[in-house]
Amino acid sequence: LLRACCISLFNMQLHQVALQPLNAAPTCLRAASRPSLPARTRPACRHSSVASLKQKVVGRRVLPPSCAAVDGQKQMQAWNSQVTEGRVRNIAANEVKAMQADGWTVLDVRPPYETSKAPISNAIHVPLFIEDPDNSLATYIKKATDFGMGGWWLGGTHNIPNANFSAEVKAKLPSDARVIVVCQKGLRSLAACETLARLGYNHVAWVNGGLDTACKADIDTENGVDIRYGGIGGLSEVLGWTEVQREENPDGQVAGGLLGIIKFFAVILGIDLLVFAYEQITYLTSQGGQ
Q1: Are 84 and 35 in contact (CB under 8 A)?
Q2: Looking at the whole model, is its pTM more than 0.90?
Q3: Distances from the Cα of 273 to the Cαs of 262, 269, 276, in angstroms?
């Protein structure tokens, strides 16, 4: 079990390294999958590879093209056309603070489990997706699938569209407001821009690549943490292996240094103890039935 977990985690780290561009500046790292749209001025940060436009968002994960229906691909093209045709202003994360000072309002469409980690100062929060409250067997299967597809490492859970999104936006934002729509990766906020256009908002901006492209000084948060902390979770966060955590590691140690390694083996030991306890309970139960 230990060998399998080590190999799995090593392969994930190797895959992340392989995705890093060779010509990027090393001041800060990014692990964002975002649509490839016309480039804007970026902070001096290091970004990972850009995901294909032909993707579909489910919760915090991005499904490959094979999982997306044709209608979903057409929807992505419609979202992107908002930017390419100039109906939605395409901005970089380092422009948000200045635009807020100029009267623009930030609309944060991230789910609550992301905003609670890094809430944006002076922003309005209306989630585009929310955690599925249903407790049916089908929902548990979906949650288990999301967990197995990467939630155990990246965090997040099975989400559903917020049916009250439009009503909440209209209640919190006047129709003449100038709105910057943000989310962690940039895909949900791009989808939200289309909804705002249908609601009659004519001054809408979108952060290309999402909040994961920001440096700590780009966007103020209520609790003072780096905005990228909103997008981490799962075992990678527990071990301190996310990029934002490694950046803040003063020694630049791999795997979060000694503490990260201790956490890793503690998790493995905990899993091993649970498996051992299960085996013992099963054995005792079978013996008692004989």
Answers
A1: no
A2: no
A3: 16, 6, 5
CA-nearest of 134, 159, 138, 158 to 148 is: 158
Question: Alpha helix (H) ranges present in 53-115?
Answer: 70-84, 96-101, 112-115
Contact 208, 40 (CB under 8 A): yes
Q: Which helix (H) or strand (E) holds 17?
A: helix 2-19
- The residues carrying an active-site annotation are 183
Residue of 136, 138, 183 whose CA lies nearest to 162: 183
Contact 129/158 with Cβ under 8 angstroms? Answer: no
Yes or no: say if 79 and 204 are a contact pair by the CB < 8 Å rule: no
Tokens of 238: 């527990």
* Confidence class for position 53, pLDDT limits 50, 70, 90: very low
State pLDDT tens for residues 124-150. 999 999 999 888 898 888 888 888 888
